[in-house]
Amino acid sequence: MPRLALPRACRLHLSGTVDSVFLETWVGMARHGQLRTINLRDDGNYYVDELPAFLMDSNCTALRWDLLELGELQRPVQFDPVSFRRLTHLSLTGAHLHIVLPQALPLRVLHVSASNLSVACVNPRALGQSLTELKVVYKSLKGCDVFVVVAVMAGLGKTVSKVEVPGDWEPWEEHDGFLVGGSFGRWKCSCSACLACLQPGA
Question: What is the 3-state secondary structure (H, E, C) of 38-71?
Fold first, then answer.
């Protein structure tokens, strides 16, 4: 598809591999704010040390990314608040995830699952006040920012509960997980209009 024009009122929900979203087809829609959600799986790039330029320009409200490695403990990947100024829902799943979340991100829902996980927050108290749902699953968790976020959310009356570890992880590896707010830890899209949202019981 060399060119694809959407009517101004339409919104696009993109799902696929990282390679498939580098097509320039989506760039114009992203610039006009028409790219609402992105659901990525990373089949080829096993280690990502910086966010792809496409994601930085996507202007999306929800990003779900399943990959192997994102950043390193000493060099975490930062979600730039200017590039992700509309991002309210973020879900990351991988083996090794190391990220930084600035205060200016408009996040409402955050799901992170990894064997080796580190989540640094520029202002964990502010993030705890803005989040409505937080899901964290890990084998090894570095840093205490996540626990500050949880304490703030719990102080606001949000329920903290234990969640089950994803079934596709190795059964002999012990993982911990918790959910703050929300129900059952199920990903909830922010748009209310995509196919997932329109399914019965969604």
Answer: EEEECCCCCEECCCCHHHHCCCCCEEEEECCEEC
**20 within domain boundaries:** yes
Angle at 50 between CA 103 and CA 119, to 5 degrees: 40
Domain encompassing residue 57: 12-198
- pLDDT single digits (tens) 133-181: 999 999 999 999 999 999 999 999 999 998 876 555 555 466 888 999 8
| 66: number of Cβ within 10 Å | 14
Residue pair 47/73 in contact by the 8 Å Cβ criterion: no
How far is residue 38's CA from residue 19's CA, in Å, rounded to a whole number? 13
This prediction has a pTM of 0.85
